[in-house]
Design goal:
The protein is an alpha+beta fold. The chain has helices at 36-50, 74-92; strands at 26-31, 54-59. α1 packs parallel to α2.
């Protein structure tokens, strides 16, 4: 580390208050299952979307295993999870799922 006052501290943004950090132009949030992204980072994604970030959500499974009820049809569950995911994305301001 240098004592040169002209050198920029690469970590200075990390020590700034969270509200002062720049929002990214584009965001890709990746989750294994439906609801993972919303529970893990929904607040941050909504904030960035409200500031103009283009938010895309990638869910890598279809949600067909999201119930303990063995009588539920897999296709029905997939459709339900997809509809829920689209609604959640819209509520957060995401542009694509």
């Amino acid at each position: 580390m240098t004592n040169n006052p002209e050198s920029k501290n690469l970590y200075s943004e990390l020590s700034s208050p969270a509200g002062s950090l720049a929002s990214p132009a584009r965001v890709l949030a990746i989750g294994a299952h439906p609801d993972d992204i919303e529970f893990g980072s929904g607040g941050t994604l909504a904030k960035w979307a409200s500031r103009g970030s283009q938010v895309t959500m990638l869910v890598v499974t279809d949600g067909s295993k999201g119930t303990w009820d063995a009588s539920v049809d897999s296709d029905d569950l997939i459709n339900t999870r997809s509809t829920e995911q689209q609604s959640a994305a819209a509520a957060l301001g995401a542009t694509a799922v």
